[in-house]
Specification:
Helices cover 33% and strands 28% of the residues. By secondary structure, the chain is α+β, with helices and mostly antiparallel strands. It has a single domain, classed as 2-Layer Sandwich (Ribosomal Protein S5, domain 2), CATH 3.30.230.10. It is globular and about 45 Å long.
Length: 204
Amino acid sequence: MSKMAVQIQLAFEERFGSAPEHVIRAPGRVNLIGEHTDYSGGFVLPVALEHAVWIALRPRPDQRVVLHSLDFAETAELDLSEPQKQEKGWQEYLKGITKVLQEAGWKLTGWEGVMMGDIPQGAGLSSSAALEMACLRAFAEASGKSWQPQIAAKMAQQAETEWVGISCGIMDQLISACGVAGHALFIDCRNLEMKPVKLPEGIR
C-alpha cells in the first residue's frame, strides 16, 4: 500500500471515526506528443503520473455529500436534492460532476470523505481533470454504479466545460481514467480509439 493510500485512510478515520469503505486514486498526466491537438481531433500520447488525487469515502444514508479537502483545509457540503449554485473554487468541479451525473439519469447516493493530492497545481499536469475523475469515481462507488472509464471521461469533460466554464479537450480525463501502468496511451481524438504503448524499462 502506498504512502498516500495510508495517509488518506488515516485522515478519514480521524475525521469520521471509522475506516473508509472505498479509496479512490485518479492520476495526473504528462503529454509526450500532440499538445493541444485533442481540441481539433488529432493524436495525443499522454502518460499517467504517480502523482494523483485521492479520495477516501463511505456512503451516507441521505442525499448529502460532505467532502473535506486536506490540501485546502476546506469542506464542501452539497445537498443532492437541491439545485447547485455556481461560485468559485475547487468545489465547483464536484458540483459540475454532480449536475452532469444527475442529467444523465444517475440516482446518486450521498457520501462523505476526505481528499488529498500531490499533483502540483498550475504546472500543466492536469490536477483539475484528476479531481473530476476522483469525484466521479466516488459517486460511482457510493451509488453502486459500474465503472466505465471512457464514458466517465466524457462526463468529466462535460462538467468542466459546461459548469466550471473551461473549454478543454478530452485527453486529460481519458488518461486519468484509462491510463495503464508502465505505458503511454495513444489516443485518436477523432473517435477516441486508444492503444497502450509500452514505455522503455526504467521510465515510469
